[in-house]
UniProtKB/TrEMBL annotation:
GO molecular function, one term: oxidoreductase activity, acting on the CH-CH group of donors, NAD or NADP as acceptor
Protein source organism: Tilletiopsis washingtonensis
CDD domains: PGDH (cd05288)
Enoyl reductase (ER) domain segment(s): 25-340
Pfam families, alphabetized: ADH_N_2 (PF16884), ADH_zinc_N (PF00107)
Signal peptide: none
Record-given protein name: NAD(P)-binding protein
Keywords: Oxidoreductase
């Protein structure tokens, strides 16, 4: 019997200074199409098992110049996915292979073999790690911290958005490097998790009325300023941290989720960069694609040794739950990596 592929596509762009509407028929909508019976040459048919939800997807909905072209109206939403090959016309893939690819938000994906990556078995790791520590989040944390920020052992590091997918990796990598870690997140439960489970030396809830004063006191007085900021959040938190830099500090500008749904207000304290001869550098993880395997081998070794904890937040609703899962990233529902199991 013919199989059906359910796709979630972009129906309407959200306003640049507003949120995505998760109801189907608003920002996104669904359609059901037949899974092709015949595959093109050198292709695979993937039955998708897990889909990714990432804050970057908010940016892909904007009709603006960026590192990737915007998703077009009517196009299946771009997303990373993990799944199993169920048909193949490629000599490189067999039925049953576990793979990752930019499948998009759909239940079945026909992909050219060259755009699909076979996932090797790694001791201690699970398939789903390919969306977390061994996937884009881990690559972002690893290269952002060690290459962009050039973290050295014994330094003082601040990680914003620390309980999320990238942030929770960065906190642990910095601790493995022997650094002091100050973390920020959006709930007392996340703050506890960061300190008690992931090893952060200090952590602060940015929703507390005393957050800014507490963070500055910790960074400026207790730790005598900081060497590295790994920033996932931007906005007010980044602005406050500009006042906490040591001489020659480095800021790795990974993300700015606090400004993704609004018009950014700008940074008032940027002159500290001059006074402290500090550097601020944005980066895109794809730049490091040729070095992913180097990072994966190290990260998989730490997973195998039990040195890296991973946490997943499983969204509900299957393929139809993808828009809500994306919106939930903006209210901080997730601790660790948000995934949609199909
Ligand atoms: N440069 C790159 O190549 C690259 C690659 C991957 C990701 N990123 C960026 O890295 C950041 C983290 O991505 P991720 O995949 O790890 O997502 P994530 O942190 O797992 O999820 C997003 C988190 O952001 C926090 N958040 C939401 N709204 C916020 C606000 N207004 N202020 C402060 N925090 C807020 C929420 O946690 P709370 O409960 O703490 O609010 C939420 O859990 C994002 O900015 C993303 O765009 C960049």
């Amino acid at each position: 019997m013919a199989r059906t592929n359910t796709q979630i596509f972009l129906a309407n762009r959200p306003p640049n200074d507003g949120a995505i509407d998760p109801k189907l028929g608003a920002t996104f909508d669904q359609r059901r199409v037949p899974v092709p019976e015949q595959l093109p040459a050198d292709s695979v048919l993937i039955e998708v098992k897990y889909l990714s939800c990432d804050p970057a997807m908010r940016g892909w909905l904007r009709d603006a110049r960026s590192y990737l072209p915007p998703v077009q109206i009517g196009e299946t939403m771009r997303a990373a996915g993990l799944g199993v090959v169920v048909a193949s016309t490629s000599s490189a893939f067999q039925v049953g292979d576990e793979v990752s690819a930019t499948t998009g938000w759909q239940t079945h994906a026909v992909m050219p073999a060259k755009q699909v990556e076979k996932l090797p078995k790694r001791e201690g790791a699970e398939l789903i790690d390919a969306l977390g520590v061994l996937g884009s989040s881990g690559m972002t944390g690893y290269w952002g911290l060690f290459d962009v920020a050039g973290l050295k052992g014994g330094e003082v590091v601040v990680v914003t958005g620390a309980a999320g997918s990238v942030g929770s990796v960065v906190v642990q990598l910095a601790k493995l490097k022997g650094c002091t870690v100050i973390a920020t997140a959006g709930s007392d439960d996340k703050v506890r998790w960061l300190k008690e489970e992931l090893g952060a030396d200090a952590a602060f809830n940015y929703k507390s009325p005393t957050f800014s004063a507490d963070l500055k006191k910790c960074c400026q007085k207790e730790y005598k300023f900081v060497d590295v900021v790994f920033d996932n959040v931007g906005g007010e938190q980044l602005d406050a941290l500009l006042l906490c830099l040591r001489r020659y500090a480095r800021i790795a500008l990974c993300g700015a989720i606090s400004d993704y749904n609004r018009a950014p207000a700008g940074l008032r304290n940027y002159q500290t960069l001059i006074a402290m001869e500090a550097k601020i550098q944005g980066f895109i993880v794809f730049t490091y694609a040729s070095r992913y395997e180097e990072a994966r081998q190290q990260l998989a070794k730490w997973i195998g040794e039990g040195k890296l904890k991973r946490n997943f937040c499983y969204a509900e609703g299957g393929i139809l739950g993808t828009p809500q899962a994306l919106v939930d990233l903006f209210s901080g529902v997730n601790k660790g990596k948000m995934v949609v199991p199909l």
